Amino acid sequence: MVGLFKLYEKGIIFSNQNYRYIKYVGYTMLWSQVGHIIYSMLMSLIVTWPKPLLKDRMIQITGNYFNILVIITAIMIILMSWIMRQASELAEQQNLTI
């Protein structure tokens, strides 16, 4: 985020580095939620594993509105990074045009 804001401070909005920073933010948000889902599944399995009276092991997938909201936001940020990449290519072509 610091690198992204440094580019904005310099007035560089449409650049390849800019869209990479935005893409990294989106993928970080997305993978954090995927990791949270895997973590909750593993925790439910670990908690129910040593119970000899219960013959069944349980895997529970938990999530709430916030998790879904973060996933949707992450997908929107990734989409925005793709749009910024297209815009940086157009800006580069425009700078090369006489």
Q: What's the number of helices?
A: 3
* H/E element sequence: HHH
Shape: rod-shaped
Instruction: Determine the oligomeric state from the structure.
Output: single chain
The description of the largest β-sheet is: none
How much of the sequence lies in strands comes to under 5%
Give the number of DSSP strands.
0
Provide the low-confidence segments as ranges.
none
Ends distance: 34 Å
Estimated radius of gyration: 21 Å
Round the mean pLDDT to the nearest integer and report it.
84
Q: In which range does the helix fraction lie?
A: over 70%
Structural class: mainly alpha
How do the strands and helices of this protein lay out in sequence?
Blueprint: H1 2-10, H2 16-48, H3 65-96
Explained architecture:
The chain has helices spanning 2-10, 16-48, 65-96. It starts with a helix and ends with a helix. By secondary structure, it is mainly alpha-helical.
Name the descriptors:
about 100 residues; 3 helices; about 75% helix
Q: Summed up, what is this model?
A:
With 98 residues, the protein is mainly α.
